[in-house]
UniProtKB/TrEMBL annotation, chain A:
Residues 1-12 have a biased composition (Basic and acidic residues). SUPFAM superfamilies: 2Fe-2S ferredoxin-like, CO dehydrogenase ISP C-domain like. The keyword Acetylation does not apply. InterPro entries: 2Fe-2S-bd (IPR002888), 2Fe-2S-bd_dom_sf (IPR036884), 2Fe-2S_ferredoxin-like_sf (IPR036010), 2Fe-2S_ferredoxin-type (IPR001041), 2Fe2S_fd_BS (IPR006058), Aldehyde_Oxdr_Iron-Sulfur (IPR052914), Beta-grasp_dom_sf (IPR012675), TAT_signal (IPR006311). Transmembrane segments: none annotated. GO terms for molecular function: 2 iron, 2 sulfur cluster binding; metal ion binding; oxidoreductase activity, acting on the aldehyde or oxo group of donors. Keywords: 2Fe-2S, Iron, Iron-sulfur, Metal-binding, Oxidoreductase. Residues 1-21 are annotated as: Disordered. Residues 61-137 form the 2Fe-2S ferredoxin-type domain. This is (2Fe-2S)-binding protein. It comes from Methylobrevis albus. It comes from the Bacteria.
From TrEMBL, chain B:
InterPro entries: Ald_Oxase/Xan_DH_a/b, Ald_Oxase/Xan_DH_a/b_sf, AldOxase/xan_DH_MoCoBD1, AldOxase/xan_DH_MoCoBD2, AldOxase/xan_DH_Mopterin-bd_sf, N-heterocyclic_Hydroxylase. It comes from the Bacteria. This is Xanthine dehydrogenase family protein molybdopterin-binding subunit. SMART domains: Ald_Xan_dh_C (SM01008). One of its GO terms (molecular function) is oxidoreductase activity. It comes from Methylobrevis albus. Residues 19-126 form the Aldehyde oxidase/xanthine dehydrogenase a/b hammerhead domain.
């Protein structure tokens, strides 16, 4: 297997988070992942490791982007989806893979404030943009009003689609699409909840929209 | 010490779930993990004659391609023993999509590219893909017979009859099948989304010929199960475990949904012919019911269970039930939410509705006059049956009394046809053995370990509800370990027995703990919670272990539990039969020109005995109704008769209910404890929630349009 570090070596470390292959191999990514998730480095964070790219992909690319307010610089395979970058490289496993086809919404995150299916978004398109995931939605130790409303209305069961539902719901309110139950249902229909928590999801969004001052 | 009713309590794991920190199996961080991807067979039946891995191995990052030659021979079949584990890799192809190779690579992208680069050649054989395909083999199941149905039908004043069809459907939990295997220091740890961690351990060990004692399975959160992640075990588990052991590194597989359609179990297509006889007054007296289903060549999903609920619901004294498998070349079908009663209930409750119209009776009144206290199938009494209370409360909440019976007689202001329909459901209430340990620490911690799997139904919340109601402990530091073979023996969680397997044993544990504390304090009065009291008497912790078995079960079932084998009691217990019941009331609106069907409101009233966790129970019922709406109006898997396999194998083409499909769902509980079923007085809930709601929709469509549809799903083209 080849192990070409030349790309890493030419790019000087920046002030933000630098996730070169060499650094991840040194274990730097452990700290990086902790920073992204907002968790203090500790036993749980130490157990988290970002899979380094083991060999230079044939079509490799250095990506510089921002995730949850933290600058990220990472070597990627150009085929990598944003979802796989988040989950497999950055240890941000809140966004879920449910279909990998943009059909279920479990992978919903925000890019520059808009909701996107991260499984259908090539990571390479994130150059210079800002990604927000469920891990960055609220300050550590607190809940976003939408998260609290999901708890209050039991707007979840298994919890697998929930991070995507909440990211979509926050966007739904911000877009001005949370003005009636009918409109919420329509604009939340890209996020499937197979457990069938839809009644609670609509109630939670109506509730949070009032708190958030939109809708 | 059962409280009169349990208080409303938030889902105990909701906070972790809304923060996105609840760890599902594919979320578990593992250092140095390799990624796997399976190569599916492109023929429906035949033999793999060649497998060229050269191109795959040239893909940068691909580490290894595993083939049939890398796996041990299947274990010998044990006569009358447990079903064999799923096969590993084989050259004989039994169904399209069967894995023929496993590519393992340093990155997910390389694994995907590598899997696509494997070149297979096959010798294809003729195959049967559909229930009516040439080559299907019909096999009769157990007959369910009591009384004299033929003679009674011959003399019955009224007989209604019809044939009904329920389609192939796939579970489609949003969580994909996922396995991460870590082979380290002589132990194999499997992080897998499973409803049966104990069974997964046993099956994987048997498939690979290793000691189950060195295998640990962890499944603390399941991203939706619905039966897909239990029962027969997953074919991928042993593949990933073996790859990890061969390569000495952790291996992870998240199976693409398109492959899951071809690998996982599914609800088989089934056909139902019913003749239902009644007196002129409307007493149902006899039923003849022939059920048949599609089945794989060696599948074990039992056909006779279509009679499980239909033979018991309305006190019919004369019953003749037959069932048949039609064995064809597909992967094995299995248990999908409300497995048999979803289909049999559609057939029967449609017939009951037709009977009401034939007799000129109200469909609610007809049902009220036919429920009973005796299980004619066994001659035993039901331990409880509050179906009439469900019907009465549902009718009241729904406003049923203002319904006009004539089909097409009710319209909305916008011109839509309005249909109001009712149907009932029931489901066996079963019970399984359990072992639990409870440890309370002077440091403020509480650790409870038991059998059970949290897949959204709220089992962890129900356990917490019991412990927090009966013990003065710190709720913030209550740890509930379930779905983990290293914490407690794990029975499969399915068949609506989750609560019966988890709650009575938790109550027993709490009671035993209170005794242990009393013994320890020996009459001393110490203020504060249990942690404080332990600290005061300088006792670091107290730990107790208890077990629980179902009515009529001996202690030997605890042995089966240790091995991960199913040990299910009921619904026919030694002296009584226990069923859960539900009544669904549905309004449909049918748009007059497009015939688009909407379901703006549903009222569902449930008799599931004592309700332990009201909030999660309500959600579970809503979920069952959502499933029934999907099943009635949307979901069918399309089998490709030309090549085998499934045509609509993704969530764009296999259409499940989305938010815009769902209106108001009002849920109520009778909340009367069952006096005999178990010490908690609870009955099963997860399946019965769905049973009957699809036929209630079909009956409402009949009321709106005058069209009695005999096939699900009911789509616009059936109403034009």
């Amino acid at each position: 297997m080849t192990d070409d570090h030349s790309v890493d070596d030419r790019v000087p470390p920046r002030n933000g988070l630098d996730l070169s292959r060499r650094d991840t191999l040194k274990g730097g990514a452990v700290v990086a992942a902790a920073a992204l998730t907002g968790a203090a480095p500790g036993p749980a964070a130490a157990a988290t490791d970002v899979a380094p790219l083991p060999s230079a992909p044939r079509h490799g690319l250095r990506l510089q982007t921002t995730v949850n307010g933290t600058a990220v610089s990472v070597d990627i395979d150009t085929r990598t989806s944003l979802l796989d970058l988040l989950r497999e490289r950055l240890a941000l496993t809140g966004a879920k893979k449910g279909c990998d086809h943009g059909q279920c919404g479990a992978c919903t995150v925000h890019v520059d404030g808009r909701r996107v299916a991260s499984c259908l978004t090539l990571a390479a398109k994130l150059e210079g943009r800002e990604v927000l995931t469920i891990e960055g939605l609220s300050e550590p130790g607190t809940l976003h009003p939408m998260q609290q409303a999901f708890i209050d209305h039991d707007a979840l069961q298994c919890g697998y689609c929930t991070p995507g539902q909440i990211m979509a719901a926050v966007a739904c309110v911000a877009e001005g699409n949370a003005t009636s139950p009918e409109r919420i249902r329509e604009y939340m229909s890209g996020n499937i909840c197979r457990c069938g928590a839809y009644v609670g999801i609509v109630a939670a969004i109506e509730d949070a929209a009032a708190t958030m001052g939109r809708g | 010490m059962i409280p009169a009713s349990f208080p409303d309590r938030a889902r105990i794991d909701a906070r972790d779930k809304v923060l996105g920190v609840a760890r599902f199996s594919a979320d578990v961080p593992v250092t140095g993990v390799l990624y796997a991807m399976m190569v599916p067979a492109r023929i429906a039946k035949g033999t793999l004659t060649g497998l060229d891995t050269a191109a795959a191995l040239r893909v940068p990052g691909v580490v290894r391609v595993l083939t049939e030659a890398d796996f041990p021979a299947p274990p010998p079949v044990i006569e009358n023993g447990p079903p064999p584990p799923p096969p590993t890799l084989e050259r004989e192809i039994a169904y399209r999509g069967q894995p023929v190779a496993l590519v393992v690579a340093e990155t997910l992208e390389a694994a995907i590219e590598g899997a696509a680069a494997v070149v297979c050649t096959y010798a294809a054989a003729p195959f049967a893909a559909l229930i009516d395909s040439e080559g299907g083999v019909r096999e009769m199941g157990e007959e369910i017979v009591f009384g004299d149905a033929e003679a009674t039908l011959a003399s019955a004043a009224v007989v209604v009859e019809g044939e009904f069809l329920s389609p192939t459907q796939h579970h489609n939990p949003i969580e994909l099948l996922a396995t991460t295997a870590v082979w380290e220091a002589g132990r194999l740890t499997l992080h897998e989304a499973t409803q049966g961690a104990g069974g997964t351990r046993g099956m994987t060990a048997r498939a690979l010929g290793i000691d189950p004692g060195v295998v640990d399975v962890k499944s603390p959160y399941v991203g939706g199960g619905f039966g897909q992640k239990g029962g027969l075990g997953q074919r991928q588990t042993a593949l990933i475990a073996h790859a990890s052991m061969l390569l000495g590194r952790p291996v992870k597989l998240v199976t693409p949904r398109g492959q899951i359609f071809h690998l996982a179990t599914y609800r088989p297509l089934s056909r139902h012919r019913i003749r239902l006889g009644a007196t002129a007054e409307g007493r149902m007296v006899a039923m003849q019911y022939d059920a048949e289903q599609e089945q794989s060549r060696h599948g074990i999903f039992p056909s006779a269970e279509y009679h499980e609920t239909t033979s018991r619901m309305y006190g019919i004294a004369n019953y003749l039930g037959t069932s048949a498998d039609v064995r064809i070349d597909r992967q094995p079908p299995g248990w999908m939410r409300a497995p048999h009663p979803q289909a049999s209930g559609f057939a029967m409750e449609s017939m009951v509705d037709e009977l009401a119209y034939r007799l000129g009776q109200d469909p609610v009144a007809l049902r009220l006059a036919n429920t009973g206290d005796v299980d004619f199938r066994t001659g035993q009494p039901f331990s409880s049956n509050h179906l009439n209370a469900c019907l009465e409360e549902g009718a009241r909440r729904f406003g049923w009394s203002s319904r006009t019976a004539e089909p097409g007689s009710m319209t909305a202001d916008d011109g839509s046809l309005v249909g109001w329909g009712v149907a009932c459901g029931s489901y066996p209430s079963m019970m399984v053995p359990a072992v639990a340990t409870l440890r309370i620490g002077a440091d403020g911690s509480t650790r409870y370990a038991a059998s059970g799997h949290e897949m959204g139904q709220g089992i962890r919340t129900a356990i917490a509800s019991v412990l927090l109601e009966s013990l003065e402990i710190d709720p913030e530091r209550l740890e509930i370990l379930i779905g983990d073979t290293t914490a407690a023996p794990q029975h499969i969680t399915a068949g609506s027995w989750g609560s019966a397997g988890a709650v009575p044993v938790a109550m027993r544990a709490a009671a035993r703990m209170r005794e242990a504390v009393a013994e320890l304090l020996d009459g001393r009065e110490i203020a504060g919670n249990l942690h404080r009291r332990l600290a005061t008497v300088r006792r670091p912790f107290l730990e107790i272990e208890v077990s629980e078995v179902g009515p009529g079960q001996g202690q030997d079932v605890l042995q089966a539990l240790q091995y991960g084998a199913p040990a299910v009691a009921g619904p026919a217990y030694p002296t009584f039969t226990t069923m859960s019941y539900i009544a669904h009331f549905v309004e449909v609106r049918v748009e007059p020109t497009t015939r688009r069907v909407r379901v703006p409101r549903v009222v569902s009233i449930v008799d599931c005995g004592r309700v332990i966790s009201p909030r999660t129970a309500e959600s579970q019922v809503r979920g069952g109704v959502v499933w029934a709406i999907g099943a009635a109006l949307r979901e069918a898997t399309e089998v490709d008769p030309r090549y085998g396999g499934y045509l609509n194998n993704d969530l764009a083409d296999y259409v499940v209910a989305v938010n815009a499909d769902i209106g108001a769902i009002d849920v109520g509980f009778i909340d009367q404890p069952d006096p005999l079923a178990n010490s908690a007085g609870l009955k099963g809930l997860g399946e019965v929630a769905m049973v009957g709601a699809s036929p209630a929709i079909a009956n409402a469509i009949f009321h709106a349009t005058g069209r009695r549809l005999h096939e699900l799903p009911i789509r616009i083209e059936h109403l034009l």
